[in-house]
Amino acid sequence: MAIRKDKSAVDFLKEVSLFDGLQDNALSQIFKLGKVANFRAGDIVIKEGQPGGNLYIVINGRAEVSKDGKVPEKRKYLADISRGSIFGEMSVFDDAPYSATIKAREDFSVHVIKGEDFKKFLKKNPDLAYEVFCTLISLMSSRLRRANQVFSMMEV
């Protein structure tokens, strides 16, 4: 699925929880910051430990999120992601390597925004930055709560 016109780009970004509540003009500006990248089933989109820094937004397809296990060839499945999902966002703000591997399960397209471009945009638009950061904190808190719940159920 190609996203070409501003209107379809805005409609697409309205499906992305990170951008909840943003006006069409802001969504159009955010979309213009990035570019589309396509992957085939089985391709590694990002690898755990590689230098991070980009924000990825899934346009279509499905991918698996996994982490290295104690034994390197044993990966731990974490989740599947699909249209509207985001990944890489932590590395945009903490400058750390990617914390998980994303592998395409089927043909997979993402909108990639360079972290530096996204941070410059947010700095120029503090009101939008506030909205994005509130949503980002909510998303991260939800992920942390789920991880805590899983961890608490594990036998140690």
Topology:
Elements: H1 6-14, H2 24-32, E1 35-39, E2 44-46, E3 54-60, E4 63-68, E5 75-81, E6 86-87, H3 89-94, E7 101-104, E8 108-114, H4 115-124, H5 126-153
Antiparallel strand pairs: 1-8, 2-7, 3-6, 3-8, 4-5, 4-7
Helix pairs in contact: 1-2, 4-5
Describe the model.
It is a single chain. With 156 residues, the protein is of the alpha+beta class. Helix content is 40%, strand content 26%. The chain is built from five helices and eight strands; from the N terminus they run ααββββββαββαα. The strands form two sheets. It has a four-stranded antiparallel sheet with strand order 1-8-3-6. The termini are far apart.
Give the tags.
alpha+beta; 4-stranded antiparallel β-sheet; 40% helix; 156 residues; single chain; Jelly Rolls; 5 helices
Give the CATH superfamily.
Answer: Jelly Rolls
Report low-confidence residues grouped into runs of 5 or more.
1-6
Separate helix tally: 5
- The CATH class label is Mainly Beta
Q: Give the beta-strand count.
A: 8
Q: How would you concisely characterize the structure shown here?
A:
The protein has five helices and eight strands.
